[in-house]
Amino acid sequence: MSALSIRLPESLHKNAKVYASQEGISVNQLISTALAEKLAALAAQDYLEQRAARSSRHKFLAAIAQVPEAEPDSVDRK
User: Fold this and answer.
1) Which has the closest alpha carbon to 27: 38, 36, 14, 17?
2) For residue 61, what are the CA distances in angstroms to 33, 52, 66?
3) How far is CA 58 from CA 36, 62, 63, 65, 68, in A?
4) CA separation, residue 76 to residues 65, 66, 70, 72 (Å)
5) pTM given for the model
6) Model pLDDT for residues 14-62, shown as the tens digit of each residue
7) Radius of gyration for the alpha carbons in the chain, expressed in angstroms and rounded
8) Where are the chain's structural domains?
9) How far is CA 44 from CA 16, 24, 55, in A?
10) d(Cα 22, Cα 63) in Å, to the nearest integer?
């Protein structure tokens, strides 16, 4: 594990303390979890952008053309 010193605005630090206490965890754990969530979201965005870059409109339309015309099930209708 490594140590990281960060500077936070007082209001952000205060809110972190409040929510960490409500969750029964330390501020360090709250920040670690929040950073992990943010990094996962960024990684997902990168992955989707890479997949989109490899996409082909032609292949998409060809795949959609193979889907049969059908009415949705009654439970799927609104």
Assistant:
1) 17
2) 41, 15, 9
3) 37, 6, 9, 11, 18
4) 22, 21, 12, 6
5) 0.69
6) 999 999 999 999 999 999 999 999 999 999 999 999 999 999 999 999 9
7) 23
8) 10-66
9) 25, 29, 17
10) 49
The H-or-E segment that residue 19 falls in is helix 10-23
Coil, strand or helix: which one is 2?
coil
CA distance 48 to 4: 30
Label residue 7 left, alpha or beta by phi (over 0 means left) and psi (-120 to 50 means alpha): beta
Q: Going along the chain, which residue ranges are E strands?
A: none
Q: Would you give the distance in Å from CA 69 to the centre of its chain?
A: 34
Question: Distance (Å, rounded) from C-alpha 77 to C-alpha 9?
Answer: 50
Which two tokens mark 62? Answer: 């060809």
